[in-house]
Amino acid sequence: MPDPYAPALPRPTEPKPYAPAELRALDRAHVWHPYGPMPGRQEPLVVESASGVRLRLAEPAEGQRELVDGMSSWWSAVHGYNHPVLNEAARGQLDRMSHVMFGGLTHEPAVRLAARLVEITPEPLQHVFLADSGSVSVEVAVKMCLQYWRSAGRPEKQRLLTWRGGYHGDTWQPMSVCDPEGGMHELWSGSLPRQVFADAPPDGFDAEPDPAYTTRLRELIARHAHEVAAVIVEPVVQGAGGMRFHSPGYLRVLREACDELDVLLVFDEIATGFGRTGQLFAAGHAGVSPDVMCVGKALTGGYLTMAATLCTSRVAEGISRGEVPVLAHGPTFMANPLAAAIASASVDLLLGQDWAGEVARIGTGLRSGLAEAAELPGVADVRVLGAIGVVQLDHEVDMAAATRAAVREGVWLRPFRDLVYTMPPYVTGDDDVRRICRAVCAAAREG
Ligand SMILES: *Cc1c(COP(=O)(O)O)cnc(C)c1O
Question: Pfam families from the xrefs (predicted)?
Answer without folding.
Answer: Aminotran_3
